[in-house]
Amino acid sequence: AENHNNPGESSTQSKKPRPNIILGKDGKPCRACTAFKDWTRQERKKDSSESTTTSSTSLSSSTTSIPFLGAAKKLPKDCPADSETLGRHTWTFLHTMAAYYSDTPTTTQQTMMLSFLRTFSYVYPCWYCAEHLRDEMLRKPPRVENRNVLSRWMCEMHNGVNQRLGKKIFDCSKVDERWRDGPKD
Ligand code: FAD
């Protein structure tokens, strides 16, 4: 079984597919922490008698219901972001920000970037993503000396998440092509 290492998922627990609707710190389901497909998978399972309790940060199917989504296959337009939409758009912003950072930033620019990244790691709405990020940033502090090293650092942070989620590792020598210059002719 896949272990994305998110709350409610643990390879040491039962092998059954696991409800993965994540609760916010207010105790309510957190859309920005949960993939839309997991909301809808949960809806489809709602009527089944199976009710697996996992950790305190995820809900069992008997207590979770997002009725208007029903068995929808795609996140309806104008819905609040799920964890994947939020993640994708946020990475777009973060990599683009790094791609347009100065080659020779002033001390003030470097301080502002550091301050932004630290603040970001506290305010990102997917709380467990933010927690992972803060841990990673302790292990591997942001590099803000210039555009190149910041882009590389961001790429490595993203690859850390990719790895945890079982996604493909991105070739960091291609960040400029992906986020600034576009494909070579
Ligand atoms: P994304 O991973 O969103 O990537 C978007 C695009 O970026 C890709 O199509 C690719 O072209 C490019 N790309 C991919 N990797 C790199 C790289 N290393 N460097 C440069 N470009 C790259 N989700 C969770 O389930 N658990 C988490 O703990 C979690 N933590 C997150 C932490 C942060 C800070 C952010 C911003 C998001 C986090 N997410 C987390 C969301 C997750 O990373 C993905 O954004 C989401 O699953 C959607 O994935 P995707 O396959 O559409 O592509």
From TrEMBL:
Q: What GO MF terms are annotated?
A: alpha-1,2-mannosyltransferase activity; protein-disulfide reductase activity; thiol oxidase activity
The segment annotated Disordered runs over 1-27, 44-63
Q: Compositional bias (Polar residues) at which positions?
A: 4-14
Species of provenance:
Ambispora gerdemannii
Keyword check for Oxidoreductase, yes or no. Answer: yes
Report the subcellular localization: Mitochondrion intermembrane space
Could you say which protein family the record assigns here? Belongs to the glycosyltransferase 15 family.
Residues annotated as domain ERV/ALR sulfhydryl oxidase = 79-179
Q: Which GO terms describe its cellular component?
A: Golgi apparatus; membrane; mitochondrial intermembrane space
Part of the whole protein covered: 323 to 507 of 511
Instruction: List, as start-end ranges, the regions of compositional bias called Low complexity.
Output: 50-63
Q: Name one GO biological process term.
A: protein N-linked glycosylation
Q: What is the lineage of its organism?
A: Eukaryota, Fungi, Fungi incertae sedis, Mucoromycota, Glomeromycotina
Its recorded name reads Sulfhydryl oxidase
The alphabetized UniProt keywords are: Disulfide bond, FAD, Flavoprotein, Mitochondrion, Oxidoreductase, Transferase
